Amino acid sequence: MRASGGLPHFSRAALAIVGAALLAACATVAPRGTGDLGIVIERAAGRVHVVDTTARASLARIDGLGDLSHASAVYSRDGRYAYVFGRDGGLTKVDLLESRIVKRIVQAGNAIGGAISQDGTLVAVSNYEPGGVKIFSAQTLELLADIPAVSGPDNRPSKVVGLVDAPGQRFVFSLFEGGEIWIADARDPRAPVLTRFANVGRQPYDGTVTPDGRYYMAGLFGEDGLALLDLWRPESGVRRVLPGYGRGEQKLPVYKMPHMDNWAHAGGRAFVPAVGRHEVLIVDETGWTEAGRVAVAGQPVFVIARPDGRQVWVNFAPPHNDTVQVIDAASGKIVHTLKPGKGVLHMEFTPRGEAVWISVRDEDRVEVYDTERFARLATLPVDKPSGIFFTARAHRIGL
């Protein structure tokens, strides 16, 4: 039957039937957890893939994230939202379940990563240009605090690197030009309290924190060695670790700066990349002394421990960036060498470490390997993939 205007007319009974059908259709969409989700960065396209680590599949692609060179991400504590830090200063909140951008802001001219606070309410971003750290509400991305990174008698600005979260609602970071390490206590996020440590070493280039949140370590580019801060006893100051580990040896040109943003911590020992050398250094964490060196295929970039700590996986700067080597943490020996393809940029383990995902930029694919048998499990086509970040990071300090 039609109404006088020619439009269909439905009785209440018919509408009830339609409503019931819609409810039934909605009921077929199963609720979905986020524990096996993650994102893969497509750096050139300014896009991310939402991936499922159980199905080893891409679920969706999300465009519009700007310049994603050197992009990284952290997660809300429920694992639903990724906060993506772009090189263009962009900060983008992404909803993994709805595969959409919630909000995007450009908060600086050049940024280098970020962190999320212990309680998940704050997101901090470290900047190259104009330098400093900005703190935002994780819910709304409202700017809460702007911390300029200046040091010395002339208040010279510095690029900020190695930003991590630490227990006590703190953020810890390093000043590259200033040679300092700062702690920002953000319990009052609009008025963070700063503690500064000067003369920690020349040009700290990156930093990381132990999985228990106790020790912050900064790698030094301007000299051999590492700077170590005990966050349980910050009043003790920063001390130098492995000073002059390359003394008397000829330095090699550095083709790509190594990263320390995923602490390789295994069996009471830390595995760290040696800057400009074909070595991974082993540090005994009881006394923070050198416990050994592993000769590797090239200049290490990422040195990452499998979640159980038994293996340490290493990728390399050019011209060895087609290679990945696996170190047995107990023996300190290389147990396997893989050749995933040209341009290996990043590696990420599944939450319990049975598989590792590897981005192979120059061959437009992500490879998934079994970490026991080193067999290839899956290949995903991805345009110029770089960083891979899974939601398990939401529950780990420093990630």
Automatic annotation (TrEMBL):
SUPFAM superfamilies: C-terminal (heme d1) domain of cytochrome cd1-nitrite reductase (SSF51004)
Pfam families, alphabetized: Cytochrom_D1
PANTHER family in the record: DIHYDRO-HEME D1 DEHYDROGENASE, PROTEIN NIRF
UniProt-recorded name of the protein: Protein nirF
